[in-house]
Amino acid sequence: MNKNRTSIPVNSMADERSPGIVMERISFDYPMIEEEEKESHRHDLHSFFLLEKGTVSIEIDFQKYDIKESSVIYIHPDQVHYTTAVENITVSTFALNSEYLNPEYLKLLDEIRPVKPLLLDKETYSLISEALSLSLKFYDRKNEKLYHSLLKDSCNTLVSLVISQYLEHTQSPEKLSRFEIITKAFKQILEQKYITVKRPADYAQALNISTPYLNECIKNTTGYSVSYHIQQRIVLEAKRLFYHSDQSVKEIATALGYDDYPYFSRLFTKVAGITPLTFRNKNRD
């Protein structure tokens, strides 16, 4: 894998017909992976994949998944991934940028990420597959007067179907305790602010609660402190950059909001149990 990079590549999925929405259905009867999919990358859109036939092996943020047919997966634009193997596949893809996504769906996607591949039951798979086939027909009707509106609405319907399936496998918001509600809100803010906001007190202030109470909520729900979650999120991004780019420790520290890069290096070592350079060298072997 080519590592001569100053940053994690972002593969554009843009299509001249509709820059904010891309759809396709592809089939391979033999093991074949496009070169850009073999390399670690991010996508510039919110991406959804329905595996209709065959198997796909993929790595997402250092987690390996073997995806079976009749499965769906959502990949957030922040997530770094690459394909390691495919076999006799038919896969349908639909991808949207944030502007085209229904705001409610965008909020839900931020809340549920990261997610694992989800194996669908027969009825649900059939429904999503049929809806996708219809949307693909809309996608090819580029001369329609309301083409973009038609495409946006049909793709958002697909997104809602997928989100619904993921929500089926999580606890209903109506059943969440006060601690769980605060933990959910904290994680949403953390995802947005981890580069610029490092202190638990600042997250507590953003949630209009005291720092001890925030810690109580997070520990009760997850078993770990607020600081633990902040550090884990920072180190995940650092791992992405150490593995997928050639930026120096100092450059990565700066990118993640640390002017004192020796401190950042010590933090990484404490959380990851390995020094930054050892992590890089070990994972490139």
Explain what the structure shows:
With 285 residues, this protein is an alpha+beta fold. The chain folds into two domains: 159 residues, Jelly Rolls, CATH 2.60.120.280; 110 residues, Orthogonal Bundle (Arc Repressor Mutant, subunit A), CATH 1.10.10. The chain is built from eleven helices and eight strands. Strands 2, 4, 5, 6, 7 and 8 form a six-stranded antiparallel sheet that branches. A hairpin with a 2-residue loop joins strand 4 and strand 5. Helix 3 runs antiparallel to helix 4 and helix 9 packs across helix 10. The longest helix has 22 residues.
Given the C-alpha coordinates, what overall shape results?
globular
Distance separating the two termini: 10 Å
CATH superfamily of the largest domain: Regulatory protein AraC
- Beta-strand percent range: 15-25%
| Number of H/I helices | 11
Helices and strands, in N-to-C order?
EEHEEEEEHEHHHHHHHHH
User: Which structural class matches the secondary elements?
Assistant: alpha+beta
DSSP, total strands: 8
Quick rundown:
The chain is α+β, with helices and mostly antiparallel strands. It has helices at residues 35-38, 103-112, 122-140, 147-168, 178-193, 200-206, 211-222, 226-244, 249-255, 261-272, 276-284; strands at residues 10-11, 21-28, 42-43, 46-60, 63-68, 71-75, 81-96, 118-119. Helix 3 packs antiparallel against helix 4 and helix 8 (226-244) packs across helix 10.
